[in-house]
Design brief:
The protein has 337 residues and is of the alpha/beta class. Helices cover 36% and strands 25% of the residues. The protein has a single domain, classed as Rossmann fold (3-Layer(aba) Sandwich), CATH 3.40.50.150. The structure holds S-adenosylmethionine. The site of S-adenosylmethionine has 20 residues, from α3. This is Trans-aconitate 3-methyltransferase.
Length: 337
């Protein structure tokens, strides 16, 4: 069981301190789906590992705008919100109810408690868009991809992504690159390597899969290009080593095998997750990790406080200091053949 499923897990703090995704990123997904030229009155969406509704809360306002635009036929949105954790689903329901209150005639939401690989919607080949954010590392990649493939309509979109490990890129008021290097080294040591710290509290193989920026699941999807999936695009950013890797199986103007003209433009920075925050806010985010939850349940001092003290000692960082961090990120979008 993941820590997110525990009754004592604070899903409200999770909503407060976790990074969210930009509206521009979701618009990019909808552009890939072709929502601008939507021909149907309805759309079916599935969110896998929804957590407290992080993605759906961003998606609903975009869809409300499309529905209100009288030039598009879209009238009905059905969203399946799924997660393994009931604690998360309860929080998702509270959050989502608030944003659909004024549009109940357009939105139908169904909550499903299930592992991602075994989601049973009682209907196959009905879903237009599946999103799975920051959860694919908990799943068996092969089984999950097969299950998603079954649920999607032909040409339906699977979009998944993840982020991990904040990289210190600036400490306001300081140009000392060495402070950044020490802060990043200390982070790595405290969170993964140092004995008796957080390393042993990570649930495996999930954490390693996420740290590898979804190498395994991406390879399975990419190996099935042309067979099960098409027009797959993938992007990984690692600000620590300054590396960006991209794969774009779509030349942006050909009519491809499916006879459709694609106007999709590839962007490598659309999932750049850069945040300006105080060091204290970063420590609050650290407390939303499943590993911190386990650590905090068995220690008197919160792990985030311990890490705070360490960075104060090593690089003089105070809780009130303003910092800039960038997460390592990965996204993959693909369409069902
Ligand atoms: C880090 S949260 C991500 C929540 C949200 N999608 C976001 O992007 O913030 C991971 C979510 O995956 C869920 N989860 C963990 N294992 C799962 C599984 N086997 N199947 C489905 N969901 C799972 C957790 O309960 C948690 O809500």
């Amino acid at each position: 069981m993941s820590a997110f499923s525990a009754n004592t897990f604070n899903s409200h703090d999770y909503s407060l301190y976790r990074p969210s995704y930009s509206t521009e990123f979701f618009q990019y997904i909808f552009q890939y789906l072709g929502l601008n030229e939507w021909k149907s009155e309805s759309i079916n969406i599935l969110d896998v590992g929804s957590g407290p509704g992080t993605c759906i809360l961003k998606i609903i306002p975009i869809l409300k705008e499309v529905i209100n635009n009288k030039e598009t036929p879209l009238k009905k949105v059905k969203i399946f919100v799924s997660d393994l954790s009931n604690t998360m689903l309860n929080e998702a329901k509270i959050n989502i109810d608030k944003v659909i209150r004024d549009s109940l005639e357009s939105f139908e939401i169904e909550y499903i408690q299930s592992g991602g690989e075994t989601i049973d919607l009682k209907i196959n080949e009905q879903i237009d868009l599946i999103i799975a954010a920051e959860c694919v590392h908990w799943l068996n990649s092969e089984k999950w991809l097969d299950c998603m493939h079954k649920l999607l309509k032909k040409d339906g979109v699977l979009a998944y992504w993840g982020y991990v490990d904040p990289v210190f890129t600036k400490i306001e008021g300081s140009d000392d690159k060495n402070r950044l290097k020490i802060a990043n080294d200390e982070y790595n040591s405290f969170v993964y390597e140092e004995k008796g710290k957080l390393g042993e509290y990570w649930q495996q193989p999930g954490r390693s899969k996420l740290r590898a920026l979804y190498k395994e699941v991406n390879e399975i999807a990419l190996n099935n290009e042309g067979d099960k999936w098409y027009e797959t695009i993938m992007c990984r950013r690692d600000p620590l080593i300054g590396e960006i890797e991209t794969i774009f199986n779509n030349d942006g103007n050909s009519d491809g095998d499916n006879g459709k003209v694609s106007r999709f433009e590839f962007k490598d920075d659309v999932l750049k997750m850069e945040m300006r925050l105080t060091f204290e806010q970063l420590l609050n985010y650290m407390d939303t990790w499943s590993s911190s939850f386990k650590w905090n349940s068995s220690h008197e001092e919160k792990v985030s406080l311990l890490f705070g003290k360490k960075l104060e000692e090593k690089v003089g960082l105070k809780k009130s200091d303003d910092i800039v961090i960038e997460m390592k990120t990965v996204y993959l979008f693909t369409k069902k053949v």
